[in-house]
Amino acid sequence: MSLVKYILYIAVVSTFFVSNYTTAQNHKTTLEIETIASNLGIPWGMALLPDKTLLVAQREGILSQIDLVTRTTTIITGLPKIKVKGQGGLFDVALSPDYKTDGWIYFSYSKNIIGQSATTLSRAKLLENELQYWQDLIITQSTSNTYVHFGGRIAFDDHNHVFLTIGDRGVRSNAQNRSNHAGSILRLNLDGSIPTDNPFINNPKILSEIWSYGHRNPQGLFFNNNTQKLWAIEHGPRGGDEINIIKAGHNYGWPIITYGREYTTNFPVGLATHRDDIVHPIKIYIPSIAPSSLIQYSGNAFPNWKNNLLIGSLKLRHLNRIILKTDNVAIDEIRLLKQINGRIRNVIEDANGWLYLSTDDGRILRVKPRD
Predict the structure, then answer these.
(1) What radius of gyration do the chain's Cα atoms show?
(2) Phi, psi (degrees; rounded to nearest 5) at 99
(3) Which phi and psi (to 5°) does residue 188 adopt?
(4) Would you name the residues annotated as active-site residues?
(5) Contacts 24+ apart (CB under 8 A), 46-53
């Protein structure tokens, strides 16, 4: 498989006044970058509530609620005990597709299991600044004492299913071993039960929650209701980050088919870069950008970005914009917002088509067109 060549664009700063104003690389859209909050630790996940507040899940095991009008921050109580160590802690937060009627908020976090840790999917309701009715929907069979590669990103389809990513937990063989959850993407009903049409539901040797496998550490996940496609992005080792369209029951190759190299020897990881029974990426990043989150833009605020993938970059500190020719062909890459100078951990879109970004130095930024 040949690698798609990409063009690196350089952000152009047009002017600075109160907020930073940036001209996007297409020279048509001028962006306003506004700091909404700061000093929030590592804001791993974000969710916009209907009352114009923003929930921020901090990896340190803190849940904050930011009033987007007054910019005040409230600490939400009621979280369970969270194993905060290494890359582990509180991860994603996401509203139920039926939030206005059922009030459920979904969380992923690292749970202490006899001194080790496992990625866990839960839900609760927010009542008077406190989480109530907490339910652990699945404590995944992914325990490890390595404290790395938890995955933890949440997405919903429009058929009452929730997806959860799980990294290989630092044990490469996990990703091809379907008797545990590590190195896979799970699919559950909203109440945590197992859908009867999951791909391995009738195979007693495979855990029934598994939707796809062969993943290293997927930390970006997005379901497009219009195209009915589930997108994921995952970290590769020293190169080989992958964007994939996730299909039921498919193998995504790690650690057999990879595009990255060993950290110590610089030798290629895996046996090859192609095998007929393994799904190959839509795009590969060499060198790695260290991707953290992913959405497919659908708003009207930035019409030139419609249907583009927007990806947070940790290592290279920018917003990565991927232009698609079709649903499975990436034809261009544009690197935006490098002047933010922050590891972009999460990106979400609001009803206006504006973007909210979080950075690992504790900032929440809003990006919108300049008036």
Answers:
(1) 20
(2) -55, -40
(3) -130, 160
(4) 149
(5) 46/93, 46/346, 46/348, 46/356, 46/358, 46/364, 47/93, 47/94, 47/95, 47/105, 47/348, 48/95, 48/348, 48/350, 48/356, 49/95, 50/99, 50/100
Q: Among positive and negative, which fits the CA dihedral 134, 137, 141, 142?
A: negative
Distance (Å, whole) CA 177 – CA 330: 30
Q: Are the C-beta atoms of residues 236 and 216 closer than 8 Å to each other?
A: yes
Identify any residues that bridge with 19 across adjacent strands, giving them in sequence order: 17
Cis peptide before 218 (omega within 30 of 0): no
Within the chain, which residues score under 50 in pLDDT? 1-27
Minimal CA–CA distance to 219: which of 149, 116, 317, 145? Answer: 149
| pTM (predicted TM-score) | 0.93
Per-residue burial over 183-195, b if 16 or more Cβ lie within 10 Å, else e, is: bbbbbbebeeebb
- pLDDT score for 108: 99
Calpha distance 192→209 (Å, rounded): 10
pLDDT of residue 28: 57
Per this entry, what is the length of the chain? 371
DSSP 77: B
The span from the CA of 320 to the CA of 28, in Å, is 17
As a whole number of angstroms, the distance between CA 145 and CA 324 comes to 39
The b/e string for 129-153 (b: 16+ C-beta within 10 A; e otherwise) is eebeeeeebbebbbbbebbebbbbb
